[in-house]
Design brief:
Helix content: over 70%
Number of strands: 0
Radius of gyration: 41 Å
Structural class: mainly alpha
């Protein structure tokens, strides 16, 4: 790639990206088709044309028992998966114990009462800061008072 011009590098990159996108689309289509084929194999189409009431009830009961059986299988598989996950966790803990690898817990900083007292004292010192300022000897309301006296003198 070192001998290619920047334009050819861009073109090559563009072609590679197009090919990758096309492969992803094809793969998604293939997975979707496999899923549809699996479903059509597992679930047979049910035709209710020309069936009487008794036959429809029998069909519904059969579908209900099939659904109950599938839910039981689903529950069993979920239980097996949870059990296997638990066993995997237990085995990894045993392996870590035998190897001597332990995850050290993060220790929390313990605050002592002395540090709390120091913080309170610092906070009180900050409040006293304004009171400790020196006065400039000037009245900040002096202009207002002069203006009021001047207005009274004019009247």
């Amino acid at each position: 790639l070192g001998g290619l011009s920047p334009e050819k590098k861009k073109m090559l990159k563009k072609l590679i990206m197009q090919k990758a996108a096309e492969d992803l689309r094809n793969e998604a289509k293939k997975k979707q088709e496999e899923k549809e084929n699996y479903i059509t194999e597992r679930v047979k189409p049910v035709s209710t044309d020309g069936l009487g009431e008794a036959e429809l009830q029998k069909l519904c009961k059969g579908l209900h028992t099939k659904m109950a059986q599938l839910e039981e299988e689903l529950y069993d598989w979920e239980f097996k998966i949870r059990k296997q996950d638990y066993e995997i966790n237990e085995l990894t803990l045993k392996v870590n114990d035998t190897k001597g690898k332990f995850n050290k817990p993060v220790l929390r900083k313990v605050t002592k009462t002395e540090t709390k007292l120091e913080k309170l004292q610092k906070h009180q010192k900050k409040e006293d800061f304004r009171q400790n300022l020196k006065s400039t000897g000037q009245n900040k309301y002096a202009l207002d008072e002069e203006n009021e006296e001047h207005k009274e003198g004019e009247q």
